[in-house]
Design brief:
Two copies of one chain form a homodimer. Chain A is mainly α. The model of chain A is unreliable at about 1-10, about 80-110 and about 170-175 (pLDDT under 50). In chain A, about 50% of the residues lie in helices and about 5% in strands. The N and C termini of chain A lie far apart (about 65 Å). The interface of A and B includes residues 15, 93 and 126 of A. Chain A binds a DNA duplex through α4. Chains A, B: Its main location: nucleus.
Chain lengths: ~180, ~180
DNA sequence: CGGTAGGGATAGGGTTCT
DNA sequence: TAGAACCCTATCCCTACC
């Protein structure tokens, strides 16, 4: 077909299909797309989908689930960092789906408190940064032990109770942000 | 708090770049953004643009130059269909009945006059809908033959001269809108 | 080319900036 | 309000690999 003029077949996933996919992954595991499709329990709902469709959709679901809290932090990071080099052709959307740059350049943690201050400074959020943004910043920029969040939370509490940080309570939000006192 | 922020170089498209884009579309067709970028004939001029940039720019060009009122029609459509259906699908063929936006669900044309009236009704434009809005509505919601516009124009003329439609002439515009008489 | 993984491309809705 | 540039997400495509 040489034309293809106005023919799309963009078929959005229905909630039913998505539920079937999730159930299928629960039952058969990820990476078993053809198996899920062949399962008579899901095949009726998913009959218009291919195994590749399932794989792609599962990827999307996973990515967006991961991002719930990351998105805000990433946006803040983006704001805080100077504009990237003169926009080359790999500067399109696809990078968002891959791992954030290279983790090879992460520094080792030396002083957690200094790192926290660095995060808040670099995030440059006008109304301070909340815990999650700080977590993400640290995670993205340093080699972190598995219990980093707890350590950071402890230090945040300490730094704000008798240190250089100030807690900001918002009228319209439930989260508490942190900012420098000085 | 006025911090000297980071100005993003809003790289405006130069006439050369725009010409290269148009030539590229002529040569490779729309939707071949990466191909256009890879074409040595255009890559030098467009080297600071991404495939997504090309797509976006082409959309801007098309909206303003070719289809001035396509946007208006789309906005009207959006206005007209605000409450996405209460999610109420039959078991027969969910995909065909949901999401009027998917082109896969276009109905076959049976009665053009009825379709025209449906368009005007659903577009819900307070001052009636002009030809182009109606064209777009039909194009978006039905499988159309290539000469749909001419057919619709003929029926519009007929329906307004001795039918249920009323032509509205505007003081400040040159276009003529149509609305139901009843 | 049967199936999967992952990079990549595209369309279209949104957002930001002016 | 509008237009241009740009961002975000969902979907689909391509290729390497086994």
């Amino acid at each position: 077909e040489g034309e293809g003029e106005f023919s799309f077949q963009s078929s959005k996933w229905t909630p039913e299909e998505e539920a079937a996919l999730k159930a299928g992954v629960l039952k058969h595991g990820t990476g078993k797309w053809r198996t899920i499709l062949s399962d008579p329990h899901f095949s009726s709902v998913l009959k218009s989908r291919s195994n590749v469709d399932l794989k792609d959709k599962w990827r999307n679901i996973s990515v967006t689930a991961l991002w719930g809290s990351r998105k805000k932090a990433k946006l803040a990071l983006k704001r805080a960092l100077p504009p990237p080099p003169p926009k080359h052709d790999d500067d399109n959307n696809t990078r968002a789906l891959t791992s954030p740059r290279t983790h090879a350049s992460k520094k080792s943690i030396t002083s957690l408190d200094k790192i926290i201050l660095e995060a808040i400074t670099n995030l440059k959020e006008p109304r301070g940064s909340d815990r999650t943004s700080i977590f993400i910043y640290v995670e993205e920029n340093f080699k972190t032990p598995p219990n980093m969040k707890r350590h950071v939370a402890v230090r945040l509490k300490h730094l704000s109770s008798n240190g250089p940080l100030v807690k900001i309570k918002h009228k319209y939000r439930f989260s508490t942000n942190f900012t420098s006192a000085g």
